[in-house]
Amino acid sequence: MIPIAEIVKLSIQSLLRNKTRSVLTMLGIIIGVSAVILLVSIGQGLQNYITQQFESLGSNLVIVLPGKVGGGGGGFGAPNIAGSKLNLGDVDKLSRIGGAIESVGAGIEMPSSVSYLGKTKYTTTAGLTAEYQKMRNLTVSSGRMMTDSDNRAGRNVVNIGPGLVDSLFSGANPIGKQITIGGQKFQVVGVLSKIGSGGFGIDVNSFVVLPLTTAQKLFGMKSVQAIGVKARDKDSIPEVIRLVKKELSKRLKDDDFSVVDSSSLVATINQILNVVTLALGGIAAISLIVGGVGIMNIMLVSVTERTREIGLRKAVGAKPKDILIQFIIESVTLSVVGGGIGVLIGFLGALAINQFIATTVTFWSVALAFGVSAAIGVIFGVAPAARASKLNPIEALKYE
Amino acid sequence: MALLISLSKVTKTYKLGDDVEVSALRGVDLNIKEGEFVAIIGPSGSGKSTLMHMIGILDQPTTGTVELEGKNISKLTEEKLAELRNKHIGFVFQAFNLLPRTSALENVELPLIYSGDSASERKQKGEESLNMVGLRERMDHTPSQLSGGQQQRVAIARALVTKPSLILADEPTGNLDSKAGDEIITLLKDLNKEGNTIVLVTHEREIAERAKRIVEIKDGQIVSDKKTK
Prior knowledge:
heterodimer, A: alpha+beta, six-stranded mixed beta barrel, 13 helices, 17% strand, elongated, B: alpha/beta, Rossmann fold, six-stranded mixed sheet, 10 strands, ATP-binding (chain B), ATP binding (chain B), P-loop_NTPase (chain B), ABC-type antimicrobial peptide transport system, ATPase component (chain B)
């Protein structure tokens, strides 16, 4: 029995003698592996982004959304924001319950334009109660936050995101300046702290925050789009949900509102995104299989082309097993090297795309893509290798 | 001199389709002793290739026995035959059968890979063997950089490298011009003088005459077996 290291050397020598063909054969695997890694990284990035967004809402939070969200059938409906029947009265009622409920806040969000001295920026305007700002973990880096008194009085004051300091004020101190939102003037009283990196083209650092009542006046709305209810601790979340449902049911129909806790919402969304990620990865995996068929094709051609070589090797003492192992190692080398290059390209591709869309390269996608490509090398290498090892040396030597 | 290979009452029948059978060998008895230089001559279709395959233990007889150094090979497995070929037989082919894009030295080392020699042993034996055929200076050349005669000498070096009991040359001059062919036969004669046993298969009487013994085969049977002058 000759050492496996020698056969590996033989296989690699054979591949190097046919560089162009080896590279072209690997191309299928390279594309397959990098596609799997890239697509899964996009799916995973999306998942992380959404989880991160929800986590910025803070923990132990129960959210009341207008309309029917989710459902027994596992479906996932969108909240009915435009037809919201929730209002500030509900917020007051909920905040008076106490007990398991620590605090209650509410908010609305509308797209709008913000301008200062002729410069205009299209962004999102949020109207938030002071409590809701806390729930969303918003803080200011300079100036002051919105207060309850701003909210009660409906003052025209605004906190702006740090991104707007650059785009509207060219970096100058904006505190005390007047900006225009939807045709009305507002005084900047604070600059929000920078949060996260965002993604999907949403500039999370460029939005503006008004007191909730001010925003309702500005947009002509009576309702609120979301009510946040903070529970005392994690264990009291079910109790909070029960209390909130009971209170709201006095005034509203079951279909008018939904009560979800942020962690179960994240779980539901993650479940959906997992399916999406798997589907993306699965589609990419098809190209891996195609790459494997490519390897088998080339290996079969190679066996035919090298019939005389195989005959010679057998004549000078190669056993069928030696030939079998050599050809399997050749195809495994092609798929493993191709897989390695694919991992590299997938990784670099994910980094490049990360400039536009959040991507996260996961270990399991790399391991899976690489493992599958190596397995493909074995599986699709066996048939050609078996054919080579069974060649009759006399026939093989005569082969023209 | 000790008996190297011995064929007794060897027949070989090939099946072509269901009913048609072709007898390539019909009861061949042949003994080759150590140190001999035997030419096997015969027209095409005479069974000379089949006989060569028996001597080279590439094939096994339908009936009869083939003994290599007293050991019956008729019932051995393919694995065992490969091992015996590696150890005992050095092949030289008409078409050289060198691996393309592979240096002369690596080509010569090939049989040693399958006998399990280490890389340094292979290199040393390979260079020695190339030295014997006068091509040590060209050991880094690939076949396409060598003339036909040189390629065949590399092939002979490859056959010699395992120090086999027998060198089996199948039409070694068939692809060469007469001058290069003559040099190859001279080389084989020299190797025989140094003690190597050589079996030369050819269809050219002129070349066969340069061996010490000529075995003539026709229609699957040996029709003459005599020493040359």
